[in-house]
Design a protein that fits this description.
With about 130 residues, this protein is mainly β. Helices cover about 0% and strands about 40% of the residues.
Length: about 130
């Protein structure tokens, strides 16, 4: 049964990062193809990582097809940030290969190594 789980980024996992514009704080959302999830709150770049307790469940649906995987999440963002705050979002995925290695995918990798926590990779604005 899908549940909150730690360490989802160690396997295949879709991630998105939600940051408040002009603020160092942000959240990391981990969504697994099995329906497991977790949300972490950060005070700044990789600082103060804590599970976000304001979200006790995530309504996540997973649809698998031979050529695709679709994850749909309905998020009440007002549970963690005020509705009128401008947001910046980074979208990424960790994919475990059949041979066991991990690959890292994102809209951009602005540094020399993949680092989904970099705020300059939060390209989507809401």
């Amino acid at each position: 049964m899908p549940a909150r789980r730690r360490g989802l980024w160690e396997e295949t996992c879709c991630e998105f990062f939600l940051g408040v514009k002009d603020s160092p704080r942000y959240w990391e959302f981990n969504l697994s193809p099995a329906g497991h999830w977790n949300v972490y709150r950060f005070a700044g770049y990789r600082q103060g990582m804590e599970e976000e307790t304001a979200l006790t469940s995530l309504p996540l649906s997973v649809r698998r097809r031979p050529d695709s995987l679709r994850l749909v999440l309905e998020l009440e963002v007002e549970r963690i940030v005020a509705a009128d705050q401008p947001l910046e979002i980074g979208i990424a995925a960790v994919i475990r290969l059949a041979g066991g290695g991990l690959t890292y995918w994102a809209l951009t990798h602005p540094g020399p190594e993949p680092d989904f926590h970099r705020r300059d990779s939060f390209l989507v604005e809401l």
